[in-house]
Amino acid sequence: MMGSPHYLGNRNGTIVPMKIINRNFRREFEAVSLYEAGIVLTGSEVKSIRTGNFKLEQSFAKIIDGEAWLFNAEIPVYSFTANKNYQPTRKKKLLLNKKEIVQIETRLKTGGRLTLVPESCYNKGRQIKISLALCKGLGEIAKKKIEMKEDLKRAQEREMKEYVKQ
Q: How does DSSP assign 40-80, residue by residue?
């Protein structure tokens, strides 16, 4: 049975698209490959995420005993819940195919210095998904180069605006 219209998103009964991005991802990592995973959540966590309350900045994923887990992802308590023993940063199980888990695990072991990091969280219909990236960390020099490119781009845009004004 379908839920009430306000649960789905808005008064018309349509599902409102939602996307939460890990802001540190592009600055800290270079993606090697991407995976889409489901996530096991409680009802109040789902409602909290649908309102946009989900912090992925310090989070990472690990494969433990053939299962994928998400650590340090903070979902603040939903304001209308009665759960007093709620832990915002508890580990959450990720839902991946066995084939994907084996592929990730072998690449983590043989690929050198690779890490599994969540890139974004979004909904696909009523389900909440997480985009995981198998990535390698950027060094300090690479980070500075990226910052320099962004600064140059901003300066060029500023000059173009000033030129158009005149």
A: ---HHHHHHHHTT--B-TT-EEEEETTEEEEES-B-PPPTT
In whole angstroms, what is the distance from residue 52 CA to residue 39 CA? 16
User: Tokens 């912090």 — which residue?
Assistant: 55
Q: How far apart are CA 107 and CA 4, in angstroms?
A: 43
Give CA–CA dist 91/89, Å, rounded. 6
Residues 60, 135: Cα–Cα separation, whole Å: 11
Distance of CA 35 to the CA centre of its chain: 11
Strand (E) or helix (H) holding 96: none
pTM of the model: 0.73
The H or E element spanning position 89 is: none
pLDDT in tens, the chain (166 residues): 333 333 445 555 566 778 888 888 877 888 889 999 999 988 888 888 888 888 888 888 999 998 999 999 888 888 787 777 778 888 999 999 999 999 999 998 887 788 899 999 998 888 899 999 998 887 777 778 888 888 888 999 888 888 887 7
